[in-house]
Amino acid sequence: MSLSSFFSSFLPVVHADAPEEKEVKEEQQPAEEQPAEEESADEPQQEEAEEEEPEDPLPALQEECAQTAKCAPLAKHFQHCEEKVHAGQGYKGEDCVEEFYHMMHCVNGCVAPKLFAKLK
Predict the structure, then answer these.
(1) Tell me, what's the pLDDT at 17?
(2) Mean pLDDT by 10 residues, the chain (120 residues)
(3) What phi and psi, each to the nearest 5 degrees, are found at residue 77?
(4) Rounded CA gap, 27 and 24, in Å?
């Protein structure tokens, strides 16, 4: 007995009627004209979606702040820890979560005022 059949024994199954309306519209249009019209209708929507979405400034600001004099030593320490762990030189079960936390705390402190100034 599958999980779906188990639940369907307790709950009634409901089917949506929306696909039938699409089938009626598709049947009314000639088969040759249909793909061309659908493609032309989709293109403006895709272009609008691409134009409306602005570029996210956060990754660039994070990279910039990670290289500042205040955060660079923490980033270097995190990078060294990662290299050590991936090379198998660290102790068993070692991870670099603490180093990552300290680095990101510094980076986020630097990024926050710049980011919110750009978003206003």
Answers:
(1) 63
(2) 67 62 53 53 59 85 94 96 91 91 96 88
(3) -65, -40
(4) 5
Handedness of CA 101, 60, 111, 67 (dihedral sign): positive
Place of tokens 């004209």: 33
Segments in 17-96 forming alpha helices (H)? 18-28, 33-52, 58-66, 72-86
Q: How far apart are CA 94 and CA 77, in angstroms?
A: 15
The answer to whether the CB of 71 falls within 8 A of the CB of 102 is no
> DSSP code of 68?
S
Tokens 């929306």, residue?
18
**CB distance 115 to 59 below 8 Å:** no
Q: Is 88 strand, coil or helix?
A: coil
CA distance 93 to 85: 9
pLDDT of residue 27: 54
